[in-house]
Amino acid sequence: MSNEIRFITKNFHEYDTSSIDSYIGIGGFKALQKAVSMDGEDIASLIAKAGVKGRGGAAYDMGRKWSQARAVPGERKVIICNADEGEPCTFKDRELISNDPFNLIESMIIAGYTVRAQDGYIYMREEYSHLRPLLQKAIHQTEAKGFLGKNILGRGFEFNIHLYSGAGAYVCGEGTALIRSIEGKAGRPRMKPPFIKQSGLFALPTCVNNVESLSIVPHLLLDEKNFYISQGSGESIGTKLVSVGGNVRHPGVFEIPFGTTVREIIYNLAGGLQDDRKLRLIQFGGASGKIANSDILDTPYTYEDLKKSGVTVGSGAILVIDDRTSVLDFLRITQEFFSHESCGQCTPCREGNLHIKLLLNKLAKGEAKHRDIDTLTKIAKIMTMSSLCGLGESAQNALLSAMRVFPETFDVGGAE
Ligand SMILES: Cc1cc2nc3c(=O)[nH]c(=O)nc-3n(C[C@H](O)[C@H](O)[C@H](O)COP(=O)(O)O)c2cc1C
Ligand code: SF4
Q1: φ and ψ at 321, to 5 degrees?
Q2: Of the candidates 366, 370, 383, 402, which lies 20 to 30 Å from 186 by C-alpha distance?
Q3: CA of residue 408 to ligand 1 center, whole Å
């Protein structure tokens, strides 16, 4: 039985994505019309009441973020749509942009109205440059219809959207690095404070949201039957897009109600493992996420239940690895990624990633001793505590979780 649902993905294949008239034909921009008849604070509290958490990885309360962004003083403010989607095995935002570009634009205008911003930027990873013409066309058509520009819907508010492509660095998905990249500087994170919400792009108050977080908003505004809040429970209300990849029969993006079990996602929606092979491990939330073994299969996919099982929702990625890859090889590949993507500006991350990689290689060659395993643990913990940004803080999540779940991988026998 399929547990797939269509709320955030409701518009997929329902209209011609190259035509604003087609979008309007299915009810497009009705949410914007409703939004401009509301007070911005009421929009933020509607999102907060629905319990929407940011879908970029940090799961920050979205209604709260909008309310705070609205309250920050400033003549000019900025909305940024984070479409960097650099986390390996994460490809849900690409689906949202490709299948429903006008909904994203509508949600950004609503965001602008709510927080009193005049400019919106969509920061898209370089690998998605093929989607630029689609978005650019959608922006032009929206301007021509008067939903972008000055005096939108006669309400005296102005909003414009700019498209920006990164150069392909994973770290540019981090808010401050992303902002520096748009400003034409090297895309490296900076210390906080100042916080982005007070001093972000061009030192203006800035609100950064993920594509999926934004895409929920128009649907939520028009959800008169309260379908969204009838799904899930507790901290995990509504529906969620997950991208399932790796050794499954049908990799893809699925919209699920929170509470669907991991087993249902992998075996019903993604078709189970290729050639009915044995499951080795599952990584949740991208390369910076933690890993689990098959014990997690009957866990409901919720923020709370995954946390209890030692993993997190993160970017929404679910990477399934079968018995053809060893845990150690998986960790070595993950570490290769982080050594390459570390921007190098702070020591724990630059040196830590390199040395974890070297120690894992030593372990793979059968040359590691007990003290090497101790050093691995020590480096990983130092990185978590002292790195400047989320990359260095989370790069060793896979390693530390593997030490808990697959201790045999680190068993070096009697070697001192
Ligand atoms: C190294 C790194 C990479 C990130 N990459 C992304 C990304 O590709 N997309 C994204 O939405 N958030 C990414 N984030 C999280 C963002 O910094 C930020 O929390 C998010 O865009 C906020 O939007 P949300 O509140 O709607 O989730 C990344 C964070 C770090 C530390
Ligand atoms: S933690 Fe890593 S990616 Fe982040 S600033 Fe430091 S070196 Fe750069």
Answers
A1: -120, 130
A2: 383
A3: 33
Mind listing the pLDDT tens digit for each residue in 50-63? 999 999 999 999 99
Q: CB neighbours of 376 closer than 8 A, spacing ≥ 6?
A: 356, 359, 360, 399, 410
Distance CA 158, CA 152 (A): 6
Distance between Cα 77 and ligand 2 center (Å):
27
Q: What radius of gyration, in Å, describes the C-alpha atoms of the chain? A: 22
Find out whether the beta carbon of 395 lies less than 6 Å from any atom of ligand 2: no
Mutate to test the pocket of ligand 2, among 337, 353, 391 (most ligand atoms within 8 A of CB): 391
* 6 token code pair: 């269509």
The mean of the pLDDT values for the chain is 97
Query: Which ligand 2 atom is the nearest neighbour of the CA of 343?
Result: 8
- Rounded to whole angstroms, the Cα distance separating 192 from 195 reads 6
d(CA 313, CA 335): 20
Q: How confident is the model at residue 4 (pLDDT cuts 50, 70, 90)?
A: confident
Q: How much is the pTM?
A: 0.97
CB atoms within 10 A of CB 60: 13
Rounded to whole angstroms, the Cα distance separating 178 from 187 reads 6
Query: Tokens 């993993």 label which residue?
Result: 311
Domains by residue range for the chain, with CATH: 20-227 (3.40.50.11540), 231-322 (3.10.20.600), 327-410 (1.20.1440.230)
